[in-house]
Design brief:
alpha+beta; NADH Oxidase; 15 strands; Outer Surface Protein A, domain 3; three-stranded antiparallel beta sheet; 371 residues
Length: 371
């Protein structure tokens, strides 16, 4: 029976906007992603939902659709119970995701459908799972190497910055006005090694030794790789490089001055060409998904990239260099240029640095009172 809330002939129902439809294992599902209610749907369900794309009474829909009236009412009741059809007054009284999220449907779907994932910290459960997984699917390597390329080994010496951490934090700014002078190779090495380089090992138990870096990474998986387009660094030939963590070296992939490509990859932002280099952070998907198979694990790539970007900016600030980050990316062009497929490995963030044209303006503390 249709509930009392929607059973009256005068009640007007409308399709919930938070619906997705997909095929899985040969079955067609309709899902309300906020409540995570879903139903294996016949073609009639799609027709019913379409009939309620604007508020209508149940009676008007049952007259309009070519189905037996009793079965049609049962289907409408099922859709109401699953929050796929809602009373008109109810929709008006609750927040609209489509309005509040400015039409970003894909983002809303991902956000709400991956909340509140159950986790288990039971060591017995985890141990059993990892033993089985290791026996049937060896974990992916923690390094990516281009072994047949020429390399530029980076110095492990860190030039003294003489700036305490609290001062670095206070001075950190995104800066885009660069001088037309080359950056010393030692400065590049400090930024790249300090951001993406290995600092040691951690004990991963059944998973063996795992890499440690200056920034945190979920499960010490460290999925982020660094590709550098270099065009104004003393002693380093302009070109495309991959930072090989294992060897602490830049692995040369392509020769050439690619600053115009860097501008294009950063969505046409012209200031990029005046920096000394641009780093493309990519994510190696299997490093994360091998251990974390739940759908919310996709967030980890961007969390990791954010940690690394902040480390990069702080290191640059401590060196009195200008640095920037940007998420304005032409992903497909980047993937083709550096040679990744966009599925197993894909770009997630850009950052770069150079010498400043002039010292940044001093940061003044706010004197405004809170109201």
């Amino acid at each position: 029976m249709i509930s009392a809330a929607v059973g009256a002939a005068s009640c007007r129902l409308v399709k919930n906007q938070n619906l997705v439809a997909y095929w899985r294992d040969g079955k067609f599902f309709i899902e309300e992603f906020r409540s995570r209610q879903r139903v294996i749907a016949a073609a009639s369900y799609a027709e019913i939902l379409d009939a309620f794309r604007k508020p209508r009474s149940i009676a008007s829909v049952t007259r309009a659709l070519p189905y037996e009236r009793a079965s049609l009412k049962r289907a409408i009741a099922d859709l109401c119970a699953r929050d796929m059809l809602v009373a008109e007054n109810r929709r008006k009284s609750r927040p609209s995701i489509s309005e509040l999220w400015r039409g970003s449907f894909a983002a809303a779907y991902y956000h709400f459908s991956t909340r509140d994932v159950p986790y288990s910290d039971d060591p017995i459960v985890q141990g059993t799972r990892f033993r089985h997984q290791l026996a049937n699917d060896p974990q992916p390597g923690c390094y990516k190497d281009y072994v047949k390329t020429r390399t530029v080994v980076l110095s492990k010496r860190t030039p003294s910055a003489r700036m305490p951490l609290h001062a670095v934090l206070g001075r950190r700014r995104t800066l885009r006005d660069f001088a037309a002078t080359k950056l010393p190779a030692a400065e590049l090495a400090t930024l790249v090694r300090g951001t993406w380089g290995q600092t040691g090992w951690v004990n991963g138990g059944l998973l063996g030794p795992l890499i440690a870096k200056t920034s945190p990474s979920a499960g010490a998986r460290h999925p982020i790789e660094c590709y550098a387009l270099i065009w104004a660094v003393s002693g380093i030939r302009p070109g495309l490089y991959h930072y090989g963590v294992r060897r602490n070296a830049l692995e040369r992939l392509r020769d050439g001055d690619f600053r115009e490509e860097a501008v294009r990859f950063a969505g046409g932002q012209g200031f990029v060409r005046n920096a000394a280099f641009l780093c493309v952070m990519t994510a190696v998907a299997d490093r994360v998904f091998w251990k974390y198979s739940s759908s919310d694990a996709y967030r980890l790539f961007f969390l990791d990239a954010g940690h690394l970007a902040q480390t990069f900016l702080l290191l640059a600030t401590a060196r009195n260099l200008g640095a920037f980050t940007t998420a304005a990316m032409k992903e497909s062009a980047i993937e083709e240029f550096i040679g990744v497929d966009g599925v197993r490995e894909f770009p997630v963030y850009l950052c770069g640095a150079g010498r400043l044209r002039q010292p940044p303006s001093p940061v003044r503390a706010s004197t405004r009172r809170a109201s």
